[in-house]
Request: fold
Amino acid sequence: MQTHQELAAHSAPDWPAIVAVVLGVTAFSVAQGVTYPLISLVLEGRGVSSTMIGINAVGFALGLAAATLMLGQLTQRFRAQHLIIAGLVGCSLCLAAFATFSSIAVWFVARFLLGFCASLIFMLSEAWLNVACPDRLRGRISGIYGAAICAGFAAGPLAIPLFGTAGGFGFALTAVYLALVAFATALLMVSTRTVPEPSSTRDLFAFFRHAPMLVAMVFAFGFADIAAISSMPVYFVKTGHSEAFAALSVTVLALPTALAQPLIGYALDRLPRHSVAVGTAFVAALSYLAIPFIETPALILAAFAMIGAASFSLYTCALTMLGENFRGGMLVAGSAAYSLTYAVGSGAGSSLTGAIMEIGGPQAGPLSVGAALSVFTAAFVLGKRR
Reply:
C-alpha cells in the first residue's frame, strides 16, 4: 500500500524538490568536470610524477565506493535532504582545500572526501527525483536531469582556460559556486513535500537480484561512455587524425548528448520505455560499428555525436525505469547500485578497449565496443520477452 507521500508524488510534481535536485546534480557535475583535469594539470605543473598523480586520483574513487557502501547507514540516521546539503557544503570545503593547501597528502584526503560528498549528492538526487515525479512526467524530468549532468561536465573544464591553473582561483571560484548552490538548495527544501525513504546495504544487494536488466543498461552506458571519452581520441590519432581533431571529438560528444536527453525523456513518456532503451542501445552499437568505415571527418564527428547521445540515453532510460518500477528504500538502493555498476562498466570500457586496440590494432577498438553493445541490445530484447 502506498504512503501518503508516494500518492502525493504521483499525483503532482514536487517542483521545489525537482529544482533542488537539478541544481545539486549540476553543481556536482561542474565540480567533477573541474577537478578531473585541473588537479592533474596543477600536479603536473609542480613536477609531480605520473604515478603520484594516478594515486591521487584513486582517492576520489575510494570516496565514491565508501559513500556507496555507507549510504544505507547514513539514510537510516539522517534525512536525505540534509545529506544532500552536507554533500554540497563538503564539496565546497574540499575545493577550498585545493585552493589553500599544496600538500599532496592533504589533496589526497580532500579528493577522497570530494568523492564521498559528490557520490552522496548523486545517489540521493536520483532517488529524490523519482520520488518527486509523477510517472506521467518521469521521462521528461529525467531527461532534464540528464541534460543538467552533461552540461555541468561540459562547463566545468571551461574554468581552466578562463582562470588558468596557477593560484588556485579555479578551485576557489567553484567552491563559492557550490556554497551558493547549497544555500539555494536549503531554501528550496523548506517548500518540498517529498523525501527519499531510508535504505540499507541489504537493499543494495537485493536490487541486483531484482533488476538485472536495469543494471545491465547502466553497465552498458558506463562501458560505452568511457570508451568514447578515453579510448576513441587515441583511436583517432592512431588512424591519422590530428590531436586537435581528437580533442574536438570530445567536445562534439558533450553538447549533442545534453541536447538529446530532453527529447529522449519525451519519448520515454510517450512510447514503451523498454523499446526506447533497446533503440538507444542499437543506435550506439551501430554508430560504433560504422566509425571505422567512415572517411569524411564531418561524418565521423556526426557518428561520434550519436554515440554520446545514444549511450547516455541508456542511463536516462534506466533512471526513468527505476522510478517506474521501485518505491521506498529500493529507490535509494537502486541509485547506489547504479553508482557501483557505472564504476565497474567505465573501468571495463577504458581498460578493455585500450587492450583490444593494442592487440588487434586501432580499428578493433570501436568494432569491439560496437559488438559488445550489440550483445547488450540482444540481451535487452530477450530479457523483455522473458
Observations:
- Residues 4-189 form a domain with the Growth Hormone; Chain: A; fold (CATH 1.20.1250.20).
- The CA atoms of residues 134 and 143 lie 14 Å apart.
